[in-house]
Amino acid sequence: MDKGPKRGRDCCTRRDLIIRGAGAALAVHGFTGCRGATRGRTGAGGPLSHVAPLPENAPLAVARSSGDPAAAVRAVIHGLGGMDEFVSRGDTVTVKPNIGWDRPEAMAANTHPEVVAALVTLCLDAGAARVKVFDHPCNDARRTYRSSGIAQAATDAGADVFFLEDRSLVRVEIPDAVNLKEADFYREAFESDVIINAPVAKHHGLTRLTLGYKNLMGFLGPGRNRLHQNMRHDLVDLSLAVRPELTVIDAWRVIVANGPQGGSPADVEHPRVVAASRDMTAADSFAATLFGLTGPDIGHVQEAADRGFGVIDLDQVELIEV
Amino acid sequence: MKLNTRNIRRVVQVLFLLAFLAAFVVARFPLEFRGAVAAARLSPLTAVTAMIASRSFIAVLIPGLAVLGLSILFGRFFCGWVCPLGTTIDIADTVIGRLRKVRLGADKRLRRLKFAVLAAILGFALFGHMASGFLDPLALYPRTLAAAVNPYANHLTREGFDLLYQAPGIHIVSEAVYGPVRTHLLEFSQPWFRGHLLIFGVFAAILLLGLARSRFWCRYVCPLGAMLSLTRTGLLLRRRVASGCTACGKCRRVCPMGAIVDNKGTVMAGECALCGNCTSLCPKSSVRFAPVGTRGADPVPTAAGGVTRRAVIGGLAAGVVAVPAAAASARLGIEANVIRPPGARGAGEFEALCIRCGLCMKVCLTNGLQPLLLERGVAGLWTPSLEPRIGYCEYNCTLCGEACPTGAIERLEVEQKRKTAIGYAFLDLNRCLPWAFGVECLVCEEHCPVEPRKAIRLERAEVADPDTGRSRTIKRPVVDLASCIGCGVCENKCPVPGPAAILVRGADHETVRQLHPGRGRNRGQQEGAG
């Protein structure tokens, strides 16, 4: 059973207290919406951002039909040099799956729970002090965490699974953004040493596919429905505030129509593929091919490449089949 | 504390109240424990009124008949030992007691009022309307908790812990406490309910009546009390005053129900709540309750109770006169957008069964079920209606039907619920971003949960840029009336500020399906990949 909702924060630091105190002052002045809303700017080293270094010539590991999802995950991580390449002893790691929709596991609306569990286990084996698993679901969070099977699987693997609360919302400015100049994030997005992005690949009515970039929307608070009007730019802007160290795309079972929730088992196919890379653009570009598309067919992935965030041309990516 | 009837009663009262409150708090997802639902079913008033109004035997309300049966045997013990409102009133009376001037006269006529209320309710029920829920303690109490007390308590608790979090040092302790409080006591998210002030106001007024008399509500107003008082002291018990009585009048003074009418200990029939104050506080220990047939021919003084022909006829008349008023309100309120929860029976039946207990609203995952005010007249007051902008109906959830004590909302299996329409969605083409402004959005389509294919489809359209004249293709939503179930998630998530650009209109399932009989859906062209 998933643990009850927790506070979702590491032990407070003095910095936290000061920020919170400022927030309380704002609250007293009738600042509704974000509780104790602090403002922050992105940029390396800022307290309210988590931006992994841009990958250079990052390889892409791909596992096909490796027995079970957990084995596929282990294989791709091994292909990239092992989890030690990403997680150091004592690190706090966030594994960010897609826990978006109140659908049972077989409907492929969320990341496969065994993929999540495998990642959690690998992080703990690599010496992580704490592995956090959470998301901001579209449906009721209690139902979604349960129906997806992810809360149970992650907890069993030793992760710290919790719900996000409105009290941890912060407004973050993204000055280098083209369109999304500011957004409300849950501060847990910025409270770990490593972020492993673990999306499930699937069809989406608006963006055609939802993959790694789109999965980052789970860090956003209410009001993220405002991104849909300019998704191409907004998703890339989002990655200016949160860029994961590693993206592991779950394409074990995928929705090919009526996404991102799915509508029937007939919409689910089983490529049995898991792909991983530091380069989120390359990973998304590869995943598109599983649906008969290419990276450039996905507007925001092309936009990311145009802005220099990763490689979209798969001919230029070192592909490691595992 | 001495072991006497009075003290045992007080302990039992508190235990019942705590049990009631605990059952209420845990009445939420996943609703494995349904004590709160069972508690609402204990009311004989609900049972009798619902069965009359719906002209059917409602098996789940048998507990209410059982309580009535026990009361016939033992008298009005429910009021004195079990009723959560009674216990709360006793506590409130103790607190505000010092402000009260004790007047011992002229209350006999006021006693008739509750019988008039009861008669009005029953008269109303004869015509198929269910009005017991307004004043039945076992509906009023959870309603007050759900709509007012619980949201207030949640808000204050969260704010309180947030404040403590600011305090250096204290926060370590407060955060440690906050975790379990958050998990076990607080709602998952802060609920709010329309009309909460009125609901709370009624409850507060009932408690404030203690300024005039102790147990004012129980003596003069409560229709459940009226029904139970018809059982008098019950068939199996007799109240006895022994010869040691010195007519000191102490019993008269300590009786919270004011049921003792003279210093000899004569009690008004049907007004004794068996609280045990008189037996436990009599300085000569001359008062006892003994089973019928106990030897020793002590005198059994009783006085006539408050039931009079005039009160009953007056009440019935009031109830009957209210019937056309209720019918008028329902018809005149036809424009109002009321979205009943899935499983709700048809309009007439629903109004014959809903006791306005608020449990469906309490358990609703999204806080979407809200109490109606006067949209459907007084007959609809505090009955549930979905407000999609506040909360939508979660596709796989059936909690409201599971929480309804009377079956006004039927329990549906998930598969059936998913196919049950409670309304239909329609687009406001003047506000929808793609339709009115050529801006792609499609949040509604993304969120539509309907299986096997969404009830919002995407069509492609050419729009011309007003500045450059260049045309481009955008996708925009269209509602499929053959499959829309009116769950409201589209309206809830629509990013257009103010009223949403896609709105749900409440209607029953048959009406929605008649709007578009459905052509036998073919999959047609799929959007996107694959």
Uncertain segments of chain B are 519-530
% residues in beta strands of chain A: 15-25%
Question: What percent of the residues of chain A sit in helical stretches (DSSP H or I)?
Answer: 25-40%
Radius of gyration of chain A: 18 Å
Oligomer: heterodimer
Description of the structure:
The complex is a heterodimer of chains A (about 325) and B (about 525). In chain A, the strands form three sheets. In chain A, strands 3, 4, 5, 6, 9, 10, 11, 13, 14, 15 and 16 form an eleven-stranded mixed sheet that branches. In chain A, strands 1-7-8 form a three-stranded mixed sheet, with no helix packed on it. The relative contact order of chain A is 0.18. Mean pLDDT of chain A is about 85; it is low at about 1-40. Helix content of chain A is about 25%, strand content about 20%. Chain A has helices at about 15-30, 70-80, 115-125, 140-145, 150-155, 210-215, 230-240, 280-290, 300-305, and strands at about 40, 50, 60-65, 90-95, 130-135, 160, 170-175, 180-185, 195-200, 200-205, 210, 240-245, 245-255, 270, 275, 320. Chain A contains nine helices and 16 strands. Chain A has about 325 residues and is of the alpha/beta class. In chain A, helix 7 (about 230-240) crosses helix 9 (about 300-305). Chain B is mainly α and about 525 residues long. Helix content of chain B is about 45%, strand content about 10%. Chain B has 23 helices and ten strands. Chain B is elongated and about 105 Å long. Chain B starts with a helix and ends in a 15-residue tail after the last helix. At the A-B interface, helix 1 and helix 4 of A face helix 8, helix 9 and helix 21 of B.
